[in-house]
């Protein structure tokens, strides 16, 4: 379950931060995904 270990690292490093990237606004963005993981409620992370 590499995703769980990476989720913990993403939360630790990025929670509460702003990210910027060069993705087009009408395209999926890696920064949006990282921020969604980093800022989700902790309870949902702990139960996975």
From TrEMBL:
DUF4326 domain segment(s): 10-36
Protein name per Swiss-Prot or TrEMBL: DUF4326 domain-containing protein
Lineage of the organism: Bacteria, Pseudomonadati, Pseudomonadota, Alphaproteobacteria, Rhodobacterales
Source species, domain of life: Bacteria
